[in-house]
Amino acid sequence: MIEQQDLIRAIEQLGLKGAEVCIHASLRSFGEPVNGGAKTITDAFLSCGCTILAPAFTYHYQVKPIPPYMPERNGAGDYTYFLNGSYDDTGQIFSITGKDISTQEMGLLPEYILSQQESHRGNHPLNSFTAIGPKAKKLTENQNPTDLYASFRTLTDDNGFVLLMGVGLDKATIIHYAEQLAGRTPFMRWALDKAYNVIPVFTGGCSDGFENFEGILKNTASEIEVGKSLWRCYKAKDITRLCANEIIRNPHITHCANSQCDRCNDALLGGPVLNN
Ligand SMILES: [Zn+2]
């Protein structure tokens, strides 16, 4: 059984006390139960003065595309997939005070953080971030549908960290921010605003190729094991700079194993062609 004290020891050894940390976690990776689960992990970081940032995406708010929000090179092929897709038609719209999340994709830690009264949430119908701790408001308040990765900009400016808790680099959403820094435009998707109009919202692309950055990032990761969970910790400044530089030098590095992947192929070309 992993106890809160084991987690606190790891946090201290990684030098994370008082820091802003974006966490991507697999509770299963510990190989044994964490006593108290996501609550214990959250409490361990909060007791060390940390602020936790985590993706709290809500894929069910995506709606069918309409012109003029269907640009070329949008990681959507000829849009057949999206035009023929089935969508949740609940009549619900996203709210920053809402506590819903795509749990299966996002995991238990973001769900727990978001469920807490004192957590904050960024304003993005599909790809919002949630945060808890002293800097939670600062880390989330600038996000909006067209400034998708504002939280990562703040995290980087504040000398924050990205912590992969037993998960791979394919879970490191911040590499999509590095793509943006390297000059790529995020993909356009669609959601409803408060007046139930379809609005364009920007989202990240395919992450399946991000393991390709392993070699580039190897020397900057601080590693520690907690139970069987390998924690890899990166300074946000390092991971964004190294990945963005590599994307500029070798754009293909982000490509996943599927040569037909629309999102990866279009990302390589710079993403959607926007007219304005
Ligand atoms: Zn791909």
UniProtKB/TrEMBL annotation:
Pfam families: Antibiotic_NAT (PF02522). The keyword Nuclease does not apply. It is an enzyme of class 2 (transferase). Its EC number is 2.3.1.-. Keywords: Acyltransferase, Antibiotic resistance, Transferase. This is Aminoglycoside N(3)-acetyltransferase. GO terms for biological process: response to antibiotic. One of its GO terms (molecular function) is aminoglycoside 3-N-acetyltransferase activity. InterPro entries: Amioglycoside_AcTrfase, Antibiotic_NAT-like.
